[in-house]
Design goal:
35% of the residues lie in helices and 21% in strands. With 253 residues, it is of the alpha/beta class. It has a single domain, classed as Vaccinia Virus protein VP39 (Rossmann fold). The strands form 2 sheets. Strands 3-2-1-8-9-11-10 form a 7-stranded mixed beta sheet, with helices on both faces. The longest helix is centred in the N-terminal third of the chain and has 16 residues. The radius of gyration is 17 Å and the shape is globular.
């Protein structure tokens, strides 16, 4: 990661990055059990209070169009789903577009939106984000939905992934530009990409959107390198660390 980006991330995320994945899961399992036992409405009311003044959440408002690319449903139950918070914020004329390759995750996102009164403001697309429309292979684990990864981006061998409990499945992928055109949507105020390493490839499928003359923010999860240099080339300036990675703003012309 570019040294020019100040690492001022939350203590929880810093700790996670320092620990082995298995140890992190052992440490967080008791807390997750407590959070899952809480009423959904209470969980997200508290969570919204903690986030409403923080980026990227504070950058959007009711009526905005927001994209969330990558939406694992296991985060819903513990109050950490960006999709859920974005639904709360944009409802009232806005639209949240969720792009997610796992059909089970899509079903749970739709169900969450329906039972919380957001169904009219949410569009769930069962496809991953990418630089073109095609079919790719993903490693997925029903035990750990948030850790799904494209097979070509995985550093582990197929044998190692199988040993860890992952299976390889074909999934459709498409571009943000194509989704915007097909659904006649305006340029989104915010695009949040949390996809375990595919962030930069997804940006290649946003050329028309990124070139548009509109106030736009991009939030990228901390799963890849050269974010600062790439976003500079695209005309976006780094503005802050956030709870998943980094947020960038379209530079003034």
């Amino acid at each position: 990661m570019s040294a020019a980006i100040k690492n001022d991330r939350d203590l929880i995320l810093k700790t996670k990055l320092l620990l082995p994945e298995r140890l992190w899961r052992m440490m967080t399992k008791p807390a997750a059990a407590i959070l899952r036992a809480m009423p959904e409405s209470t969980l997200y009311k508290w969570g919204m209070g903690a986030r409403k003044q923080r980026k990227p959440y504070s950058l959007i408002k009711p009526g905005d169009v927001v994209f969330q690319i990558g939406a694992p449903a296991d985060l819903l139950a513990v109050g950490r789903s960006r999709s859920a918070y974005f639904m709360h914020i944009v409802s009232g004329g806005g639209k949240l577009v969720i792009m997610e390759p796992d059909s089970d995750n899509c079903d749970q996102m739709r169900a969450f939106a329906k039972r919380n009164g957001f169904a009219d403001h949410v569009l769930v697309i069962n496809a991953g984000g990418w630089s073109e429309e095609k079919t790719l292979k993903f490693y997925e684990s029903k035990e750990h939905p948030a850790s799904a990864v494209l097979s070509e981006l995985s550093e582990a061998t197929p044998e190692e992934m199988k040993r860890r409990g992952y299976r390889e499945i074909p999934v459709p992928v498409t571009t943000v530009d194509k989704v915007l055109a097909e659904h006649n949507l305006p340029v989104p105020k915010l695009v949040s990409i949390t996809t375990n390493g595919a962030e930069l490839e997804i940006l290649k499928g946003m050329k028309d959107m990124l070139a548009a003359d509109a106030e736009t923010y991009i939030s990228l999860a901390i799963t890849g390198d050269r974010y600062r240099e790439t976003m500079d080339d695209l005309g976006f300036a780094y503005i802050t660390d956030d709870d998943r990675g980094f947020t960038f703003r379209k530079a003034q012309r």
